[in-house]
Amino acid sequence: MSELPNCPECDSVYTYEDRGLLVCPECAHEWTADAAQEKNEGGPVYRDANGNILEDGDTVTVIKDLKIKGSSSVVKVGTKVRNIRLVEGDHDIDCKIDGIGPMKLKSEFVKKA
Description:
This protein has one helix at 33-41; strands spanning 16-18, 21-23, 30-32, 60-62, 66-67, 74-75, 80-81, 85-86, 93-97, 101-105, 110-112. By secondary structure, the protein is mostly beta strands. The chain folds into two domains: 1-39, N-terminal domain of TfIIb; 59-112, Roll (SH3 type barrels).
């Protein structure tokens, strides 16, 4: 017998693996094994715009022009941000951008470099 986790939706024990996904035959819920492990760890998981998991110290690239409140400056598309720190809150990335200074960004507007 395999050691597959129970379904996170209906808690069914009849889960099976299909091409990298775990599937529940009772409720048709599909999920990845990575998602199951992240849920068990309990801490918040931060993802970029492409769904990659972000960690402290990563380098990310801005995917959209971002206006800076209270200033006429703009963070341009393609700006690389090095050594990010992940924090809880609405803006979950704390960083320092060259030429602009300390900033908080949302993870939905960056991709992992």
